[in-house]
């Protein structure tokens, strides 16, 4: 199965792996949609953390989409499936 994407900026951007089977947006937070996400001024090589989805939430989403007849051979667009709450943790993109 291909990595999920997010289309919040109008272009499909592949998400980053996060945690144990989860995914993190490369282009949006709860208040901002841009690519790349802006850097954190006081931390070198760190960007503002994107929206996240845990591995268990992603599994449930895949099960629901498969039950609805969605073709999982194509990347899943997580744009409308992110959690509504945000995070203030920083990420490092290497």
From TrEMBL:
Pfam entry (one): GAGA_bind
Organism of provenance: Linum tenue
Keyword annotations from UniProtKB, A to Z: DNA-binding, Nucleus, Transcription, Transcription regulation
Protein name: GAGA-binding transcriptional activator
Superkingdom of origin organism: Eukaryota
Record localization: Nucleus
GO cellular component, one term: nucleus
Keyword tRNA processing applies: no
Entry similarity comment: Belongs to the BBR/BPC family.
Described function: Transcriptional regulator that specifically binds to GA-rich elements (GAGA-repeats) present in regulatory sequences of genes involved in developmental processes.
Family matches, as PANTHER family: PROTEIN BASIC PENTACYSTEINE3, PROTEIN BASIC PENTACYSTEINE6
One GO process term, biological-process aspect: response to ethylene
Any one GO molecular function term: sequence-specific DNA binding
């Amino acid at each position: 199965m291909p990595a999920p994407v997010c289309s919040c900026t109008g272009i499909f951007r592949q998400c980053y792996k996060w945690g144990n089977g989860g995914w993190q947006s490369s282009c949006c937070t709860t208040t901002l949609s841009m690519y790349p996400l802006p850097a954190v001024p006081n931390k070198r090589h760190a960007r503002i953390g994107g929206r996240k989805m845990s591995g268990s939430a992603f599994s449930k989403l895949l099960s629901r989409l498969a039950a609805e007849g969605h073709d999982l051979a194509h990347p899943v667009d997580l744009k409308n499936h992110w959690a509504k709450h945000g995070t203030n943790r920083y990420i490092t993109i290497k």
